[in-house]
């Protein structure tokens, strides 16, 4: 006897768009799909967030420009409330600068609003399956941004774990107290040039440019305490 495969799980969809006619059109199209169900709708971003929290949809179709709360902020809030929900932004152009911000806010792609409406179900399935709907031009912008961001993160990581020696930390404490290189040298019974070298090494290790920056960083990271 042949095995009967289990039916595909229903993809639960929330449609958020301030144009009721567009929502009704999507409702009609999605109602013809056996594996997709429109479980909720919203006419603005605030309502979209509330509906997403209430229904925890698998996919949200979100207009990028809506009253009260725009699609970008709504997407960000929904991702915080329901991280598993995947979000498709609806936009009139893939050159929309706000769309770029929406992708960075957690959206999984976008659909142009002039797309043939019968292509929407397949797009929902693709995003639900883990794919992203992003054009080559948008992907290029994102790669550039992420490359820049990665470099900043690497720099911060380098700063966050400085390998300062015990002597350098000692010098930094004296710098924080407003002492000059000569005063620190006299306090530690070493030459002023040695103190200058220590200060230069501290700045290089912390990737900073001034003594004040080094002191502020060291205080923030609790490397030193002015009460010491």
Task: From the structure above, extract its key features.
228 residues, rod-shaped, five-stranded parallel β-sheet, 2 domains
Return the CATH architecture of the largest domain.
Answer: 3-Layer(aba) Sandwich
CATH overall fold name of the largest domain: Rossmann fold
CATH 4th-level superfamily of the largest domain: Response regulator
Q: Specify the number of helices.
A: 10
Description:
The protein has 228 residues and is of the alpha/beta class. The protein folds into two domains: 11-136, Response regulator (Rossmann fold); 159-220, Arc Repressor Mutant, subunit A. The chain is 53% helix and 12% strand. It has ten helices and five strands; from the N terminus they run βαβαβαβαβαααααα. The protein has helices at 20-31, 45-55, 71-81, 97-104, 120-128, 136-160, 166-176, 181-188, 192-206, 211-220; strands at residues 11-16, 36-42, 59-63, 86-91, 110-112. The chain has a five-stranded parallel sheet with strand order 2-1-3-4-5, sandwiched between helices. The longest helix is centred in the middle third of the chain and has 25 residues, at 136-160. It starts with 10 loop residues before the first strand and ends in an 8-residue tail after the last helix.
